[in-house]
Amino acid sequence: MAMSTFEIVAREDFSDVTYLLEIRHPMMARAARAGQFVIVMAHEHGERIPLTIADFDRDKGTITLVIQAVGKTTKEMQQRCKVGAALHAVVGPMGIPSPVSGAKKVICVGGGLGVAPIFPQARAFKENGAYVIGVLGFRSKDLMFWTDKFNDCCDELIVCTDDGSSGIKGLVTEGIRRAIEKHPDVDECVAIGPTVMMRGCAEATRAHKIKTIVSLNPVMVDGTGMCGGCRVKVGGEVKFACVDGPDFDGHLVDFDDLISRLRRFATEEKAARERWSESCRMMTTPNLGALASQSSGPAAGGVSTELLELPDPYDEVRGG
Amino acid sequence: MAKKRTIRTIPQQRTPVREQEPAERVKNFSEVSRGYGQKDALVESERCLLCPDQPCVRGCPVGIDIPGFIEKIGQKDFHGAYDVIAATNLLPAVCGRVCPQESQCEGVCIVGQTLEPVAIGRLERFVGDRAIAEGWTSVPYIEHNDFRVGIVGSGPAGMACAADMAKAGCDVTVYEAFHQAGGVLKYGIPDFRLPNDVVDAEIRNLSKLGVKFECNTLVGRLFTIEQMVDEMGFQAVFIGTGAGYPAMLGIPGDSLNGVLSANELLTRCNLMRAKEFPNYDTPLSIGRRVAVVGAGNTAMDAMRVCLRLGAEKVYCIYRRSRAECPARSEEVHHAEEEGVEFHWLTNPVEILGDGKGNVRGMRCVRMELGEPDDSGRRRPVVVAGSEHEIDVDLVVFAIGTNANPIMGQTSKLKLDKRGYIDTDADLATSVAGVFAGGDIVTGAATVIEAMGAGRTAARSMKAYLGLRDAAATYVGDSAGGAGRCFGIDSRESNFVRVRVA
Ligand SMILES: Cc1cc2nc3c(=O)[nH]c(=O)nc-3n(C[C@H](O)[C@H](O)[C@H](O)COP(=O)(O)OP(=O)(O)OC[C@H]3O[C@@H](n4cnc5c(N)ncnc54)[C@H](O)[C@@H]3O)c2cc1C
Ligand code: FES
User: Fold this and answer.
1) Rounded to an integer, what is the distance from CA B384 to the centroid of its chain?
2) Are A245 and A95 in contact (CB under 8 A)?
3) What number is the ipTM of this complex?
4) Atom of ligand 2 lying closest to residue A223 CA
5) What pLDDT shows up at residue B470?
């Protein structure tokens, strides 16, 4: 009864935790707009997890997802999702497309996994004739990806790394600070990344009264407005991120509430992850074993424990 | 039939139904009621007086010929009984289980004035289950035409409309956002009340009629209603996307982890099978002490699911009294038997956190009933100084739903003041060729009403497409004004959508 098979037509591994999947879905490639997301089920027993559409190719009829392997589902997908394999379900595009405003000068901020989904936004702004300043944050040089794509659509590109191995040493907020210093006439900022990062960006622009849009990605189930699991507080009101968002005014979002709600299934998620890693260790299939040791290795390929506990909205989304 | 039945000659007692014992059933998700066996059904069928007045038929939102099918049961013609029901209701196994019979057919049954009413719901279920077991379907001779009909949403409204349009010969496609079809029947109502197998069997029947199901399709976003009509070649579209969008409690603490809507709880448990975690990946926080706010069917389902998931204590918090409780009476009764503690006339005012984002308790006030409000029910008012705390770690709210915004966001459909889709009496929307019905038009209602709406819309659609409605045996209110000429509905004008260019 499924609509079609959701075939994986290409895959690229950016690092041992970050991977890209290109999925055939011509109809979705046609409908997708910047800022929208899909809900994916890896297999029949899988959970429904939201993933932002990082790119879409109308000619090829594909959509692109960039995924970070941190939770059970995303790690399992990292193992299973080979080219030619298929996902059990992919539904979308969900959410209200980001309104690409008529802003003249914009800062597009992407941190970690947010780098991928900010790309179609930066491109859309560019196509709209805006002066686009890209600010990208990575932990280190070897985790960097897509800087060439950004170079093509940004008038200026500021890369920030935690360890200074490329670009400026520091967080994306430092990049924002420099961009505003140089261009006091920036009229909009769009930030996608870990929740803490988006909060930082909203704080960095607040004093300058620069309109700041953030893309929230709380725990979801249906993605159609039916369950209320994705509710967030914005300007004192309750909104459902899946149908009222996912973009909201960063200066109005109650980030503390969101961060607390993202921890909702931390215990269950941890148990599932551990149980899964355990079952991988017991598996003897050589090719699976090789991959498994990679993703369940010490600190899951350099992801700090802090991050594991505070889920990045673009890595594993608890529950869903 | 030998002699005329009277209230004195019929079996005086309503035939009891076999049920799982409460202590046993709270540990499993198997169906509580085992349903009538053939012998039970035959005995119960004798309780129907086959009265000429037939108030039950008027009490049924889709007007099933109830005495007609009960008479067939009495004659042991079960297939015949099925055909009688199937003429108006395509989901007897579902409706027999979930309809609020006590306020519909059984509520007006003549026998019920003196004795307990005829157990119409149980008889209907008996026939429906027999049909599934025997593989009966009522596939009529279908003469195919060139019309393509698109249905959005696979709940009871969409299913009913799909069936009727397929029978009328149209090429019907049902689009569903979830990865499985069935709507609330699948994701909401738990297995112990309506097993998913029953829903799947009914969906298979639709497939036999030629209806195609396309899951994982979010209409509005993947393509719009307007695109369906203008580009995708659908001559008519029906929208039955359900109400969705649960209403919030709006009290301090309602965003704590451990506070969730009944829809979320039920979807995780029923559709995503979190009850089989970690064999299935979807997690669900299991409450030790659970408060469920509300007392409708959704609330009852949530409470009973929590018990089965292992909660020690489940409270029902409802601001009105038992008399106003909107759930089916059988569900309230079952919930009571299973140990749910009812706190009638109680309203939550704050959910208390443990400082780490979780729930540790709920502060409530007691209410008393004052003057009747707009709905005719007595308005609950707070009793001064009645504040108290209850110790809970999970709060589930089931206090109704608002309109789902997706259709409004993505189409030019006219909405009503509350955001539901605006239709006329024939369920036509403001966009030509597009019809709507079920919860997305009325707000949260019942399975049978949604089904009835799907059928009404199908009738209007046939008229719109200029199709002879030969199969129509159901004449609802909306047919009131239409006349008939030589047995043909006068609305069957040859009015079709003309495509320019
Ligand atoms: C827990 C619970 C228990 C209930 N118990 C009873 C009961 O015992 N008796 C009773 O009579 N009634 C009961 N009801 C009410 C009854 O289920 C509903 O009134 C009925 O299901 C409404 O039918 P519908 O077809 O309008 O919508 P739904 O059953 O809600 O189906 C709508 C479908 O459309 C899909 N959809 C939504 N948006 C889109 C979109 N944009 N594109 C594609 N698909 C979409 C949804 O995923 C869903 O599957 C209960 C409801 C709940 C929630
Ligand atoms: S994910 Fe269920 S309402 Fe948003």
Assistant:
1) 38
2) yes
3) 0.81
4) 1
5) 57
